Structures are given as C-alpha cells and as structure tokens.
Amino acid sequence: MGLSFWNELRERMGELRDLTEISSLLAWDQETFMPPGGAPHRAAQLATLQTVLHERLIHPRLGELLALADQHPSLDETQRRMVANLARERNRAVRVPRSLVQELARRQSLAVEAWRAARERRDFSLLAPHLAELVRLKREQADAIGHEGERYDALLDAYEPGMRVSRLEPLLRELGKALVPMVQAVTEAKPPPRWRYEAHRFPVERQRRFAQLLVERMGFGTAQGRLDESSHPFTCAIGSGDVRLTTRYDERNPWVGIFGAIHEAGHGLYEQNLPAEHSRDTIGVPASMGLHESQSRLWENAVGRSLSFWEGLEGELRRAFPEALDGVSIREVQASACRVSRSLIRVDADELTYNLHILVRFELELALIRGELEVQDLPAAWNEKMDAYLGVVPEDDAQGVLQDIHWAWGEFGYFPSYTLGNLYAALLYERMQAELPAMDEELRRGNLLPVRDWLVEKVHRLGHRWDAEEIVRRATGKSLETGALVRYLADRYGSLYGVALP
Amino acid sequence: MGLSFWNELRERMGELRDLTEISSLLAWDQETFMPPGGAPHRAAQLATLQTVLHERLIHPRLGELLALADQHPSLDETQRRMVANLARERNRAVRVPRSLVQELARRQSLAVEAWRAARERRDFSLLAPHLAELVRLKREQADAIGHEGERYDALLDAYEPGMRVSRLEPLLRELGKALVPMVQAVTEAKPPPRWRYEAHRFPVERQRRFAQLLVERMGFGTAQGRLDESSHPFTCAIGSGDVRLTTRYDERNPWVGIFGAIHEAGHGLYEQNLPAEHSRDTIGVPASMGLHESQSRLWENAVGRSLSFWEGLEGELRRAFPEALDGVSIREVQASACRVSRSLIRVDADELTYNLHILVRFELELALIRGELEVQDLPAAWNEKMDAYLGVVPEDDAQGVLQDIHWAWGEFGYFPSYTLGNLYAALLYERMQAELPAMDEELRRGNLLPVRDWLVEKVHRLGHRWDAEEIVRRATGKSLETGALVRYLADRYGSLYGVALP
Question: Residue B352: helix, strand or coil by DSSP?
C-alpha cells in the first residue's frame, strides 16, 4: 500500500522500536561490562533516552497519523493490529500527565534507596512512607489511564494487555486452593533419593561451557545472541538478531547456572523468533510479560526438570562434572532438580510452591491498590498469608515483605505475570505433548529442537498479532484455566514423591 | 546564575552529550561484543539516534537560547565559551541542508562498499566515480558551511577547530623538507642490534595481561574504563567515568598489542581527565582531533619507545615473555620498537617516516577539494608523491591509494590530525622534560604518573576551554612549529642509528 501517511506511521513505529532497543543495550551493558564509574552518566543517558522516547510517543503528529489510520478503509487486518497496539501504548503515555510521570520516577528512585536500607536493617518502617506514597501515585496513575472501577486493571494491562482482575483473581485463588493440599502431601512424603551436589565444587569455567552447550542445544542462535554473566540473570533483546542472555554461577550449586541459562534461553528463543517482517513495528514484539514468562518456564520446568531431558544430556553432564556425578544415577539428578520445600524466598522456590508465593503478593498488592489494606499493615498481612498458604512465617521482614524490589520499583501488577506464565506454559506443554507423540523420545535422545520448533510456530512467530490468551487459545483450543498446570504438577510430583495427588 | 534560559540551555547541552555518548556505546558494542545478527538493527538504531541528535541540534528553540545567551551581559567567560562551542557545532549543522546531509550519507555508504571491492580487486576504477561524487558533495558542503575562499578550511574545522590551510600547509611542507633527508640518512645507516621477536610466539593471554598492566601503570583508571579487543584498536568515551579502549593481539608480533594499548590509553587518559564539572556541556570535551592524537602519540612514541620507559618495565616484560627475551638486552628491545623503514602502508609506518605518509595524503586531498586534481589522476599522483617523499612506489593501488578508508567515509580534512598530533606532542614533551627534570629517572623506575599528571594539568583538565593550539601555547609558551618534532626525531634516531641528523 503506497499511502504516504502509512509510510510515515511505520517509520515512526520503527524509530520507537530503535529507541527502545537502544535502551535495552544500555541496560544490558550496565549489568555486564560497564565500569563502575559509568553509573552517573548512564543514569543521565537513560533519562534522556526516556525523554526522547516519551516525546516521540506523545507527539501530536503521531496522534494525527493514528487517527488517519483508524478511519482509513483500506487497511488490512495486520495493519489494524499494528495501529491498535501502538494506539494502546500511546494512550497510556498521553493520558498520564508529565508531572505525575516525573513524580513517579522521583518517588520510585527514593523508594528503591529506602528499600535497600530497609532490607539491610530489617526495618520495614524505613520503606513504609515511600511505599504509601507510591501506592497513592499508582492509584492516581490508574485513574489517569482509565478503568472500569477496578484500578488494578489499568496497571495490570501494562504487563498483560487485555487481562482483567475479574478474570485473574478467581483463577489464582482456584490455583491456590489446589496447590495447598498438594504441597502438604509432598512435603510430608519421604523424598526420593537425590544427587548430593553439595558435597562437590563446580568450577565456573566448566559451568560456563555446560551452560553454553545447553542454550545451543535448545536452538538459541549464537550468531544472533550471546550468553554472559550478571548478578541477576536476565534477557535483553536489542533486535531479534541480537538477543543477550545472562546467567550467574555458584561454585557450590550447579543448578543456579544451569536453570538460569535454560530459563533465560527460553525468553531468548521467543525474542529471536519473533516475526522478522515486523521487526520494526508493534506486531514484532512479545504479546505479554506472562506469555514471555511461559516460554522461560516451559523450558526451565516442564522440559528442564523432566527425566527425559536429563537422560538426553546425561553424557554431556557427566563429561562436564565427572567426579561430582560418580555413582549418581540420572534419576537422582532429576530428583535433585525437583526438590520441594516450604521456603520463605520466592526466587529460591521450587515449581510446586512457587505460585503460592505469587498468590501472597497478588492478593496484597490488589488490596493495596483497592485501598483495602494500609501499607503499615503490610508486614503482618504478609506473614499471615505466608502461614496460610505455605505454612512458614519469616523471622524478620528481610526474609518476608522486603525480599522483592518490585513494589519499590512501582511495579504493581507485575507479579501475576509469573503465575500467568506457569498457567500458559502448562496449557502449551500439554498440547505440545499431544501433538508431538515422539517428543519424549526426542528429548531422551538429546534433541530439543522439536520443542523449539513447536513454540516458534505456535507462539513466537505470531509476535503481538493477538493478545497472549488468544495466542494460547489458538495454539491449544483452551482458554486460560488452572487444570493443565494442576495436572502437570500432580503428575510429576505425585510420581517423584510416591503420593497420590488430586 | 539562576537565569532560567541558561538552565534550559545547559539541559539541552547535556542531552546532546548524552545522545553522543549513547552513539559511542553503540559503536563500541558493535566492534566488541555484538553478535553478527545485530548488524541490520544496529544500523537502524544508529540512524535513528543521528536523526534525533540532528533534530535536537538544529531545533529552533536551541537557536533562540543561543541568541539570548549571546546578548546576555552577565555571562562569564566560561559560559561564553560553552555558548561559542555549541554555536559553532550548531552552525555547521544548520547551514548544511538536510538533502545534502542525506545525499552525503548515501554516497559515503556506497563509496565504502565500492572501496572494499576496489581494494580487494586492486582496481581503483571501481571506487573512482563514487569518490568523484563525494569530492563534489564535500565541496558543496564546504560552501554551505562557509569559508573565506579556501573550501578545505570548512572541512578541516570539523576536526581541528580554528585551524586554517594558510597556517597548516607551510608547516607540513616545512616538516616534509626536514624529514626527507633524515629518513635518507637513517635508512642508509647500519641499524642497531635489535630484539628478534619474530623467532618467538606470544600467547594472547599473556599479552592481554601485559597490556592491562601497561595501561594501569599509565594511570588509566580501571574503575572508569576497560580494555577489550577489536580488529582495529580504538578508544570510545561513554562519559569520563566510562572510557573503553581496545587493542588487538598478534601472536607473532607483541608490538601490535603493546603499542595499540599504549596509544589508546593515551587517548583514554585524555577522556578520563576532562573537567568533571563540565561533563555534560561543550567545554568538557577534547579540544580537537589533533590534540587527541597528540596524547596517544606522546605516550606511544615519545614515552613508549624511549629507553627509560623500557628500563622501567624490564622486569615486567621479562616476566611476561621470559623465553622470548632470554639473552636480549633492554637496548635491543628499544631498538626493536624503533625500527625505521621506507614502507608503503601508513598504519605500519614508524614514527620517523609516518608524517611523510600524511603529507602525501594532505597534499592530495587539498588538491582534490581545491579542484586542482581530478579523481581519475589520483593513483598516479599518489605514486609520484610516495616516490618523492618516501622513495617507494606501490606495485598496485591496494598497497597505495586504496589503503585507507578515510576518503570513502568522506573524511576529507581528517588526515592532518595525525601530524598535528605529532607536532603538538613534540612541543608538549619538550616542555614536560624541561619542567620535570627527574622525569627520565622516574620512567626508569617504572613510575609513569608524573607524565600523566603533567598532561592532566596542562591539557586534559582544560577540555575545550580553548582551541588546541591555544592550549599548547599556554602549556609550552610556543605556537605550532616543526622545530620540536624535528629535534626530538633527530635526537632519538640520530643516536640510535649513529648518524648526525640536522
């Protein structure tokens, strides 16, 4: 279509993508190779880039072009989707006044400082006033963006376009109800014999080589990406041809590096296989944070903690760490990767208890945004919920309500992404197994590419052509539900721990 | 000063610096860690960033603010200099029409492609039409920027603010006249005994450690910078607290990595020690490309090829490469670092012949811009000048006129920076020796910090408060002249080769 307004609109979309990718590079560099002295300038560079991005997003000419596109009869479905995605993003930016954006940025920065101090001194009161202010501002932001009576929806939509509390809350509560007795049964059962890796040391250089082998085996393109190290593993896309993963290595625990690499490569494969023809527009991006997380978790958990997966990698694993695996069976290796415990810390939690950690956070942040809970009552509420869902109570707030940075960052509405990821992943994995009957056999042979290829076709190559749930629905024939995840967990942990789960 | 227009102006200056630094990071990453698949997006990212930078530089509001500043009675000298530097940069951008900027970018991109092909096939005719077009466009650009009858001045000013052909040309010709007989005498003399490193191999990992030691010994701050590797060594400042050097290593020739590291660390020290209080304005930048080059060359040549320097590093050098230095004296090491030969290739040239290579290029590009030489006659003219100045003639154009990428990049006016660097360096070094009588003794003890500290005080910390020649004049009491460089070269090479030089 030779419409000149359309070419202009696409060019503006492309510039916004470029600027976003540049931000990603700056963030990646900051966590990997930047010398410490770069920090003050990096903050200024990122701030200027944010200003430029914001100015270009709210630019009146972009509004005109979107209005023209909206009314134009000859746009096809793909073009309409591009326009809708951009308009959604722009509306969120335009509706929030500049003064509120600045006040949020300022408050977040103060809250993050306060959070560090509070965690170190185990004193929630240092964070409380900043958090109360942030909650107030987030409610204001939600009102500016607009909602239909449920403020949390406006925040959630930033991470999970199209999702609503009315749909999410019952699902998460239902999942919680199913998980509590399963955790009870499994933690009371006699655990299967497992690999005692704690008795060994794992040299970082060997771990590095093994992690590299893993991500390549998954089909992660090393000419289109890299694997480096940082204190917190993450994935950064600087274009689909340039996807940077990081993991971290612990000499005493090989699982940290292994699952870090698998998890991030799951994210990375999504980014590498987004539709190339949309690499500079609003379709060629992941559909949601939840769907992104489904990719990392499907690989990390469903595939990466399966017996077949480790059978297929047995030779490589033994070659990497011969002494540590001497006399250890591959079943014991898997059992080590699948230990369940009632723990206090989310990032260390196993896949059976993980979603209960999220449920605690979701219910609390929903109550804060709804005005049903005061910030000062948060620690007590946290401890109560931990007790109710996980049967453990932190001794201090550093092990409790202060453990995550998300709220200090102002990221209310983000936590559900983790559980949505697990729910999507279970649906996709169940369907993948049905469509690929030989998949387990391929895994046992060390061939991971059928998994990658199925995900590319059903998820990655669609980009943000539809919202996440619609993509999953088209792939599996099912809407979001808890059944697939509960079945999957009952199956794996029931048989590993020799108990009958629901 | 609480003037609101001034705060706005400084903020805009700061944003321009931020965007320039971001460009530097993108370029650094492209040459070091970017996977190959990142290339297409990186090109788009850089183009968008250039567009944003250009838009902000020519923005009418910036023009208004500069006009306000220009007329404001209460600005101090420092503020006036900031304004003058920014106005100069902005005028260059504003005066060149957008269509010409785009045409230049397009032609340069085509010329670079053509240059690669021409060099590979040793066929200048593949490049000639593109180069002719570029010369035409550069003349047009010079006219747009403005000049007083000498188009080359407008181009030169981009690299060496304030410099003029009327001043440069006689200096370079005078230098050429002095150098030709010196090269004659030295190349006819019996060379001193030297280290035959060619008989050995130098493992890259050991070279890397030695290069790191060198740059740290020079006072390069490793918390404010890094040393990495790339196929062509370069220095990239992403803020004065974040300066990235690269070098390259050749297993067969340790000098490549060593002098690459010293040279780039010379540049890097300049960037690290620019005035911190001007880190986001137009004073806190290097004063010119020539002055930048003087810092790398003073370290690489005057210091890095001196006997005292290698005496001070003898222990470290022997520990790094014990076998290769077995039975070799430190005098032989220095002699190896100071070999003179009439060579064809600029980047491999020694410091005695180097400026003759530049003279060839300067005279030719000046003639092209003046319209006194046609592009089709360039290869013959090149060979004639090489014969006249260096007594060698390339067998083909790949070894001759096609060896450098600069003209294909459209960088007419850049080459003199190299010789200006050598001239400034010689003046500074002569003065430094006079002011620091114990300097040689310190070098022999391995203490390089007096050199660094003198340069920080006399050059680095001034940023672009004055133009380059004025900075050198204030440091040395002398205007630009060839005497110091000729004396320095005559002294070193006369004694090394045992000949009387002028």
Answer: coil
Antiparallel, parallel or unpaired: β A235-237 and A243-247: antiparallel
Return the residue in A13, A22, A222, A235 with the most chain B beta carbons within 10 A, the one to mutate for interface testing. A22
Measured distance CA(A211)–CA(A227) in Å, rounded: 9
pLDDT above 90 (res A56) = yes
| Among candidates A15, A25, A39 on the partner chain, residue whose Cβ is nearest the Cβ of B26 | A25
Domain count, chain B: 2
Which pair of tokens denotes residue A493?
A: 């942990």
* CATH number of A258's domain: 1.10.1370.30
CA atoms within 13 A on the CB side of B492: 26
- The token duo for A192 is 């299967």
Asked whether residue B451 falls in the same domain as residue B330, the answer is yes
pLDDT tens-digit map of B80-116? 999 999 999 999 999 999 899 989 999 999 999 999 9
Closest chain B residue by Cα to residue A13: B48
Query: Is A265 contained in some domain?
Result: yes
Angle (CA) A261-A262-A267 rounded to 5° is 95
CB B220, CB B237: distance < 8 Å: no
Confirm if B342 and B183 have CB atoms less than 8 A apart: yes
Q: Does the ipTM exceed 0.90?
A: yes
Contact B201, B252 (CB under 8 A): yes
Which residues of chain A make contact with B52, given a CB cutoff of 8 A?
A: 19, 52
- CA–CA min distance B498, chain A (Å): 47
Residues 6+ apart with CB under 8 A from A143: A151, A154
pLDDT of residue B450 exceeding 60, the answer is yes
% of chain A at pLDDT higher than 70: 100
> Active-site residue among B160, B264, B293, B311?
B264
**Position B2: which residue type?**
G
Q: Is the pTM of this model over 0.80?
A: yes
Residue indicated by tokens 């030691």: B213
Q: Are A138 and A369 in contact (CB under 8 A)?
A: yes
Q: Which residues of B touch A39 (CB under 8 A)?
A: 241
Amino acid at B55: E
Contact A239 B48 (CB under 8 A): no
CB atoms A238 and B19 under 8 Å: no
The 10s digit of each residue's pLDDT in B148-193 is: 999 999 999 999 999 999 999 999 999 999 999 999 999 999 999 9
Residues A201 and A89 in one domain: no
For residue B143, the one-letter residue type is D
Domain match, A297 and A433 both: yes
Structure tokens at B91: 């005028």
Bridge partners of A244, per DSSP, are A226, A236
In the numeric block, which tokens belong to residue A254?
Answer: 């090989």
Asked if B295 and B264 touch (Cβ cutoff 8 Å), the reply is: no
Instruction: Indicate if B450 and B318 belong to the same structural domain.
Output: yes
Collapsing DSSP states into helix, strand and coil, what is residue A253?
Answer: strand
**Is B411 labeled as catalytic in the residue annotation?**
no
The last residue of one of the domains, among B72, B95, B118, is B95
Burial class of A59 by CB neighbour count within 10 A (0 to 12, 13 to 18, 19+)? middle
Residue with tokens 């006040």: A103
Give kind and range of the element (H or E) at residue A206: helix A204-217
Mean pLDDT over A418-447 rounds to 98
Q: Which of A39, A40, A52 sits opposite B52 (nearest CB)?
A: A52
Q: Are B303 and B443 in contact (CB under 8 A)?
A: yes
Say if the Cβ atoms of A242 and B52 lie within 8 Å: no
Q: How many CB atoms are located within 10 Å of the residue B348 CB?
A: 12
Name the minimum distance, in Å, from the CA of B312 to any CA of chain A: 29
**A241 contacts B38? CB cut-off 8 A:** yes
- Domain span at residue A478? 197-341+423-445+453-497
How far is residue A68's CA from residue A467's CA, in Å, rounded to a whole number?
24
CB A175 within 8 A of CB A490: no
Please give the share of chain B, as a percent, with pLDDT higher than 90.
97
